[in-house]
Amino acid sequence: MYFEFGQALQAGLDCAGDISPDQGAVFGWVRHPVGEALELRVEGSPGDPVETLLLDIHPRQDVEAPEGMAVSGFSLVHDIPRHAPGRLLIIGVVGTAAVQEVAVDLLAYDLPVDVEGVTLNREWGATYQLLHASARDPGRIKTLTADAGPPGIFGGWLDRLPRFAGSADWFMDFRRVTAAMLPDGELAVSGGFNLPPAPGQKAAAMACALVRRPGGGTEVLPFAGEARAPLEGGFALSGRVDVPAGTAVEALIQIRRGEQSWWFRAEAARATLPEFLNALSLSGVELAGADQGALHGWVRQALSDRGDALRDRLATLGLAGAPARSGSTALLFDVNDEYAARVLSLLAPQFEARFGRMVLSGTAASRAAAGLMRRGRMEITVQGDAEEALLAAAEGPGQVAPIDTASLVDAAIEGNPARLTANALPADRLPMIAALHGMAGVGEMESTLRRVVALMAGVDASALPLPVQRPDAIGGLVAEHLRGLWEMVPVSGVAR
Amino acid sequence: MRNPSVCVIAHAHPDFSKGGGETAAYRQFQTLAGEGWEASFVAAIELPGGQSPSDRGEAVARYGENEYLYAVSGMEDDRLWWRSAEERRGLVRLLAGLNADVYHFHHYWRVGLDLVAELAEARPDARMVVTLHEMLAICSHHGQMIRTRSRELCRKETAQRCLTCFPDQTLERLRLRKALMISGLRSFDHFVYPSHFIAERYRAWGLSPDKATVLENYLGDDLLALPRRRRESARLAGRFAFFGQPTEFKGLDILIPAFASALAEDPALGLMVYGATEEETLRFFPHLERSITAAGDRIVFAGRYDAADVVALMSSIGWVIMPSIWWENSPVVIQEARRAGTPLMVSGIGGMAEKVLDGVDGLHFRAGSVPDLTRAMLEGAVPENHERLSSSLRDVIGREEFIGALRGIYAAEGEPVMRAA
């Protein structure tokens, strides 16, 4: 509904309704002279203040702005005054010399009251900004909890957003888009523009996250530590969402570059750290020279911040191997070769004499397990991958000796089964390996476990391989980051 | 003291193939049985279409008195492991049920490392012995320890070197292969090697020399019973013979050009090639056509021969030449020639150099060297040289010595028994 308060002040109200019994929302725009500040608030009755919970001012390109005038869109969330019967919107314009205030009685007009319905059809940037702001303060602003819970008034609108899962070579006006998430909730979303260059126009990216917990609960959460790369030819942003492992997370993204804007949903794929770092550093996206420098600087800062943030946590991961006692669990997490299965079978008596239980994973694990199960002298568990095997091993009592194929081979060739029991960890310390993998993993869990086994055996960390990196300066930053992370981890054990 | 009961297990039965390993195994069985020992012989067989050796479809069939054949269709393609645990168990049940004091294996290929381990567990009271006739465990190149991309001899196994021979493999897989082989072989209580050469290769590879004996294969009572006549050097010194297949590493492509060169200097020389026809030889080595043509009727391709006739054939010539360009672990041909009393010319490497002492049993020449073999042939063709070497040529191991050594191997605990063969 359009309101005109003279040549220098007009307003349009899209809706004024309730989002909960105690909170209301007013959406609209105000046209005012360029350079003058806009003030908005709600009063119960003249002079009876109502607390403004959120006021978001955003551009409105769908409303004409004659020369000398500006249009400011707004989303205002406010308390509903309990005792005051009225509801006034106070529009104030603060100029250099005077303050002009006008009041609109929100109950006197037939304004739309269906906040969710209006949200569905509003300019997407306005909706996104309200969503982003709501995610940062969900306890106070009830837009996300209206209508039977999250995502509240945004449910219908979110359903309309384009989406991709994990990665896509082509998506909207982008190429090689990726959304990657680490087990500890670190997220990176990136991609390159599939558009002509726009010199001087840097992409501004924002994100929050739609979270579906394993039990079915849904939330919209902010990206903690949200950071974005100042790029023209692409976008990259990162942050953290504090959710338990196994939670499905979709990044809700807004990107603006010049006059253009994009909104989409990106379902984050569970990633290894190298994959995450690839996403963070726009691996595979060709950027122009200026962007390359900007990206390098951003990645360097992001990795530096990441290292600083993880330092204390990594330092507490005391992985001190000690000889396994009889009856411990042997964790063979990379049984991927038929020959490894055969070697295990041949060494079965040695394992049975030293361990009470064996947990296996790898493509040849089932084959190896079949022979061991037939013998029936040890509890055998087969898991689909090293991650699951680690979890299964941690469930048992006592100690767990992680044994990689290289150690198995060494023990077999040397005829020295003591190697198999050389370095075990208490079962309740194994979750630390999972945490370490999330923060500093060097690939799949198999690779991280191999590295832990090698370090416990006294292998010089600098001699151990890191994942192959891109050949440019950013690849060097990433390698240095990985190396630095592992230097923070106190790992010790019985030397080979 | 009673002799132990012995079950000899081999990868083949000589009724079906004539390899040196199965022949040695069977001769051992026959010799022990002939001595009155309680002995049995169990051999692998691969019949067409993977058929069972038994008409009732059983995987194991009796084959004569105390002899059995077992099918290997239940094994993996590499014949080092059993795909069918049931078939393996069936064979273990048979072997364990024979109640042998000693299980003496000749080879693990077509036997299965898993079977050996399972039998060792099933019969912890029995002694597990293996004769290692070849180096398959050490070298993926058919156990020959010769580089795949050249004909260069390999002197040492390392995973890194093996990777350069098998670039499609990975270091991890090659090390796993070694772990598999060495773990499997450690199921044995004792290793028998037919030569010091192969014993040393296995020692360097990682098998303990403390559980090893070097014992030459026994040629069998029949060959040992043949008279060993004095050579007629004046007539035979210039007559040479080759016994073997025209395969890549047997050196026929060295011998024939060397003979052609020697013939140019001494037209009275002659060469018999047993085991190959001219057509087969040229199929393998087309470039030999010129040498064969130059040799004319002084070279004769005699084709196949019966193993039973070999000593007689060797007795009819002056020299047996073994020009192999690979190591040869313990060639039966050398034993047969020594038994026949015919001196040898051999490449001076590996088992050949060990079994033929240069200047005692014959002459050495540089492996792969045509001029050096030419030199040796001309030297050997001198009757006085032939006479001298024929007279110092050693005979092969005798029955009593062989049985005595086996008795020691089957009884010994912890005592190294390294003997000269």
From TrEMBL, chain A:
This is Uncharacterized protein. It comes from Muricoccus roseus.
TrEMBL record, chain B:
InterPro entries: Glyco_trans_4-like_N. It holds the Pfam family Glyco_transf_4. Gene3D superfamilies: Glycogen Phosphorylase B. It comes from the Bacteria. SUPFAM superfamilies: UDP-Glycosyltransferase/glycogen phosphorylase. Keywords: Glycosyltransferase, Transferase. Residues 19-217 form the Glycosyltransferase subfamily 4-like N-terminal domain. One of its GO terms (molecular function) is glycosyltransferase activity. This is Glycosyltransferase involved in cell wall bisynthesis.
